[in-house]
Amino acid sequence: MRNYKVWIILIMIVSFWGCERKIDLGVHEVHWDRDMCVRCKMVVSDRQYAAQTTDPTTGRAYYFDDIGCVVLWLEEDKIAWAERAIIWVTDVNSGEWINAREAKWSTISITPMAFGYAAHKAGSEPRSEIIDYDEMAKRAIILEAKKKKRY
To answer: What's the predicted TM-score (pTM) here?
Structure first.
């Protein structure tokens, strides 16, 4: 009888090892008009310019109303996992979630925080100026510095 109890305990321990928590790095559900932008605290409501980033170590999602807020939040708050962050944005035309680092960016949109960048999935870019994620991030940081200088 004693051997039987030891086996049951061992089986339970081994089965719990198989229950390791999986980290979800995909797109998380946005509660439109309720979730707030982590950086500027505006409600995320514009489905053309919304963004979210996921901490790759914990799977926690952070929501934003404009890609400029994502870039500045990662920069200003010195987020340790910024280089590995999974960043999702909505395609300005379809509203489909796409990877921000693979998106093409137009520079003349009217966005919630006036950064002006709209994401386009590959192959659906407009004829206006198109830049990649790194260039868009640099310009967003420069734009914010100019705004602060004016005030």
So the answer is: 0.77
